[in-house]
Write a structure and sequence with these properties.
This protein is of the alpha/beta class. The chain is built from eleven helices and five strands, in the order αααααααβαββαβαβα. The protein folds into two domains: 152 residues, Four Helix Bundle (Hemerythrin (Met), subunit A); 164 residues, Rossmann fold (3-Layer(aba) Sandwich). The chain has a five-stranded mixed β-sheet with strand order 2-3-1-4-5, with helices on both faces. The radius of gyration is 29 Å and the shape is elongated.
Length: 332
Amino acid sequence: MTDWKRKIPTIMTSQELLDRAFARASKAEVPGSAPFDAVKKTNIAKINGIGDMTVTTLLKYVRAFPRMEREDEFFSELVDVVIGQDELKKALASITWCAEKASHLQRMYMHKVKKADSIDVVAKATREFYGRFSSIIKQIDKDLLFAQKARDALKVLPSVDPEKPTIVIAGYPNVGKSQLTERISSARPVIASYPFTTKGIQVGHFISGWRTYQVVDTPGLLDRELEERNAIELQAILALKYLADIIVFMFDPSETCGYTMERQEALLESIRSNFSDIPFIEVENKADLEWGGTGTRPRISASTGEGVEELVKMIEAKLREGRMERMDELPH
Ligand SMILES: Nc1nc2c(ncn2[C@@H]2O[C@H](COP(=O)(O)OP(=O)(O)OP(=O)(O)O)[C@@H](O)[C@H]2O)c(=O)[nH]1
Ligand SMILES: [Mg+2]
C-alpha cells in the first residue's frame, strides 16, 4: 500500500479556488516604463497569477489520487464499492479538462493584453478573462466536491498487507465479531448492541512467536443473494474473497443479536459454498448468556474471554496446516 493516503490534500470548492486566486491577483502591481506599460504588465501578472495558481492546484489534485491500475485487486474493488471507480475517474477527467482549458484561457488573454493598444482594451480583455475563467472553474464544482468526498473515504480505508497471514471474522450482524477482534488483536473497533455497527473493514494485528497475524473485522452479513447486498456488506465479501487465509465464522446461539440460528446457519452455508477453498472455523459466541448452543462447535464468550485463548490456538494450528499443504504442493 502506497502512502498516497496521507498525500491527498483537501480539495477546495470552485468558489474557494477562485477567491484565493483572485485575492492574490488583486495585490499584483508591476512597474513599467510608462503608465500604460505598467497597467499592461500588471494585468498580465494578474492573468498569469490566476492561471498558474489554479492550474497547478487542479493538476496536483488529480495526481494525488491513486492510479487504480497500479493497485491490487482488493484495493481497487474496495474503492469501487466505497466510492465508485467510474465516477472517480470521470471527476478526475473533468478536473484535468478544466486545467487544460484554464491554461488555454490564460495564454490567450495574456496575448490579448500584450497586443492591446489602449487602456480600455486591456481592461476589457482582463474583465473577459475573469468572467470566462470563473465560468469554467465553476463548471467542475460537482467534480471537486466528489473528489473531496472520495478523499475522505480513501483516508479511512484500511491498510492491509497481503503478505501477512490473515484471519477474517464473519457472521451475522451483532453476533460479536468486533468484540472478538478487539479481544484478540490491536484493532479497536466500535462495539454496540445494534446491527451494522461496523460499516467498513477494520484491521488489527496480533503477534504470536515470530509471526504477525492480521485480523480483519467485517461488517455483518445477512443471509441473502449477492445482488441484494449493500455497499457495507460487499466490503465484507471482498475481505473474504481477497484477504482471508482463514475465516472465523461466528454464531450467536443466544439470538440476542436479533437473528435466528436458522438464518445464521443459512448464511454459513452460502458463504461456505462461495469460498470453498478457504479453511473455516465455526464458533458459537456469547456462551456467558442463557443460550442454546449446539454443543458441536467451540464455545466462546468474546465478552468474558472464555474459550478465546483456545480459539486462537485453533486458528494458528489451522493456518499452519494450510501452509504445510501448500508446501506439499510445491515441486520437490
Ligand atoms: N453477553 C455477551 N454479549 C456479547 C458478547 N460478544 C458481544 N456481545 C455484545 O453483542 C453486541 C454486538 O457486539 P459487536 O461486537 O458490536 O457485534 P458485531 O458482530 O461486530 O456487530 P456488527 O458490526 O453490527 O455486525 C454488543 O452489545 C456486545 O457487547 C459475548 O460474548 N457475550
Ligand atoms: Mg462489528
